[in-house]
Amino acid sequence: MVKTADVISASGFARMPFRIVPPTDMDHIIWAGDRSIIDALLFAAKSPREDELATSELVVIWGDYGSGKTNALKYLSKELRKAGALVAYIPRPAITDKPMWSLIVREVFSACFLREDVVRRLTRLKNWVGQEALSRVNEEHSGDDPQKLMSQKQSEIFSEILPEKPGFVEFLMDLVANKSGDQNWKFLTGSMTPKESGAIAGKYGISSEGMGSDHGATELLAYFVRVMTHTVSSPPGSDVVYLLFDECEGLNDLSPAGTQSILIGLRDLFNLATEHLFLALALTASDASELWGVFDEPLMHRLSRRPIAVPQLDPSEAKAFMLDIMGQNRKPNYQGAPEWPFSEDGLDAFVNSCPAPLTPRKLLVSAQRCVFQKYAAQVVQGTPVQAADVSDFADWGMGA
User: Fold this and answer.
1) Considering the chain, what percentage of its residues have pLDDT values greater than 90?
2) Which domain range does residue 339 map to?
């Protein structure tokens, strides 16, 4: 039996090019073929930045199963993280048997945001608060106790950063200083007894509900976004906070209470975080009108842009996709034909023989079986997959 590694080597690839599911390792996510979809997403993702429109965005991306929505969100996540942004990619907003919005928000903090990264980002804000407070103390020339005056000035700044809940700014500053840090992080990420959560809430003047209710979780996440993206003289924690929700069609499989909880949570979060938040929701829908069957009217009316559709491919686009996906996975010193391990007419036959609808996933499934199973031996021997071979290969996209 021919080994996969031998076919990869004989084909001039550095790694398996026909990945049916985008890798979890974001470093190896690539974008192949038409860039209009990803460019539209990247353009929208810039909008909440301070140097752009500085307003939050709520975007929907939709398309057939296998059209590349997951790859689009993962690639977007990769590019945003490269630019230094704080990003949470949520594979599916149904994480428990009885999913509720508060559990998803907790998952964002516990599984998507690393405490060390959050502390590192907020350290910039804490340093600025200290410097600004000291500057105001020195300007006042008051006879009051300097330490007391410093505390007063810091409280003033907390109120300027988040007028509705200045105590939450102090909550995050203590998290950075590791003063009650463990308990404060647990308040955002883990289960606490009413006594524990009440003690923290009382200290900082925040809701004792914490992550225990949808409303409390929404407030905490919205306040976190606003503090994290607060613009100061030094770089902010993150220009924008990005929340990318994949497979949102799964909301239809939940109980009515679970679906409503998540939809209201998304809507309320968007309302509370009016600046510097980017929400992207991806789902399968065969027709644009079906979006209204997944997302309710209040949420749909909050979309900041028209839904971005991921269309089916025509044969020429499918060929360009295949050439691109193979090219990006070649060995650095590869000198062969771009169509290899297909012949030139073999690749044309491959994309033209694949039945509609043409999607990236169907092409990748078919190419994987064709090159790495059906004709693996001849590829290793140096013989390309010819048009006649492709015409005889009838297992196109089975199970895709």
Assistant:
1) 59
2) 4-11+329-392
Backbone angles phi, psi at 292, to 5 degrees: -70, -15
Kindly state whether residue 36 falls inside one of the protein's structural domains. Answer: yes
> What is the reported pTM?
0.86
> Is residue 287 located within the same domain as residue 371?
no
Nearest to 372 by CA among 18, 20, 14: 18
Task: Based on the fold, state whether residues 167 and 205 are members of the same structural domain.
Answer: yes
- What are the tokens at 97? 């048997």
Q: What is the distance between the alpha carbons of residues 162 and 160, in angstroms, rounded to a whole number?
A: 6
Residue 300 in domain: yes
| Residue 60 C-alpha from the chain's centroid | 13
pLDDT in tens, 361-385: 889 989 998 999 899 999 999 999 9
Segment 253-257 mean pLDDT: 87
Give the tens place of pLDDT for each residue, 145-176: 778 889 899 999 999 999 999 999 999 999 99
In a shared domain, residues 121 and 207: yes
pLDDT above 70 (res 134): yes
Residue-by-residue DSSP string for 127-184 = HHHHHHHHHHHHHH--SS-HHHHHHHHHHHHHHHH-TT-HHHHHHHHHHHHTSSHHHH
Q: How many domains does the chain have?
A: 3
**Domain contains 397:** no
Phi-psi region of 68 (alpha: psi -120 to 50; beta: other; left: phi over 0): left
Q: What angle do CA 272, 229, 43 make, to 5 degrees?
A: 90
18 lies in a domain? no
What rounded mean pLDDT belongs to the chain? 88
- DSSP assignment of 275-313 equals SSEEEEEEEE-SSGGGHHHHS-HHHHTT-SS--EEEPPB
Residue-wise burial string across 111-130, b where 16 or more C-beta atoms lie within 10 A, e elsewhere: eebebeebbebbebbbebbe
